[in-house]
């Protein structure tokens, strides 16, 4: 069983709102479905990023300044 949707107010730039309305009219999806899909994709990407951070947590970190120093020393900057 699908959970009931929650109503929210979202303020969009006029051109984004127009693009969403046109896309909804040209597809079988509603504006709400398009926004839900975009939010789901953004959250999925965040989850993948967090997973990558956890996977690499034990890797040694290198300060950006050290990387720049090495690039300069090697004549690459």
Describe this structure in words.
There is one protein chain. This protein has 77 residues and is mainly α. The protein has one domain (14-73). Helices cover 62% and strands 0% of the residues. The chain has three helices and no strands. It has helices at 14-26, 31-55, 64-73. The longest helix is centred in the middle third of the chain and has 25 residues, at 31-55. It is elongated. The mean pLDDT is 95.
Arithmetic mean pLDDT = 95
Outline the biggest β-sheet: none
Gap from first CA to last CA: 59 Å
Number of domain modules: 1
Low-confidence stretches: none
In helices, the fraction of residues equals 55-70%
Q: Note the run of SSEs as H and E.
A: HHH
Number of helical elements? 3
| Count of extended strands | 0
Structural class: mainly alpha
Q: How does the overall form come out from the CA principal axes?
A: elongated
Percent of residues in beta strands? Answer: under 5%
Radius of gyration: 22 Å
